[in-house]
Amino acid sequence: MKRDFAEWLLTFTDSIADYKYYIDFETIYKKAEKYKIELNIMNSLIGSQNIEKDFEELIIKYPEIIKCIPTLLAVRQYEILVLDHDGNKFDYNFKKMNYSVEQYKIFMRETGLFDLIQNHIVNNLYDYVLGVESGLNSNARKNRGGHLMEDIVERFIQKAGFKKNETYFKEMYLQEIEEKWKLDMSFISNKNQATKRFDFVVKTDNCIYGIETNFYASGGSKLNETARSYKMIAEESEKVMGFDFVWFTDGIGWISARNNLKETFDSMSNIYNIADMKNGIMKKIFI
Known about the structure:
Strand content: 5-15%
Strand order of the largest sheet: 3-4-5-6-7
Number of strands: 7
Largest sheet: 5 strands, mixed
Number of helices: 14
């Protein structure tokens, strides 16, 4: 039965954020724990009346404490590049000191870390780093969001009875599909001129299915480009014996790009959303 595009579009959802999307405390604790010993040693500087002298003595006795300094500034890497007011460049290494203690004191002073520690703006550096890591982790929401639709599709693939690396595979290139199942994918790869990777590949007794997934919470020109691109892949896939292309997409971002999506919907048989997956579409298309 032919589906109605307008009715299908009404079933699109505005969010797929799960419980771990907003903040991943497990990752936060793990990252803070990495420098727990060094941070606890640095805690001895809190409220110091002579912090530069105490820092010098501490770093001479425990040089490993420098490893935790970048994270106090919400910096991930061990190398921090600085240009001072006179135009002099310093490339500080916080894994192994590459300047004098005096130069590292300048770094602590100029970045404001001495002031932070000395004036009781924080009472415990480990707790402070938990806060820093929480901020960094919230900034990573976009990266987590990019994988949410993939995770949803994978769960439904598994619910349909497929097993990872046996009957379904994650992130496979056209060349890998050709080699594994001896299919001629040259129609899709433009005679091996283009490299294409599918988010998932499902293998049944009758067919190999290449799957793309995405979710758009907001509109933009990218959506029109995506719809056109996937329409072309679907058309090219029809020329490959034993192969079919399936697209799972969702998100109210498509409302503003509905015309391009409708064009693809009308010409592509295997395009579905989350509502379709909840209604058991996996078991109907992968046969």
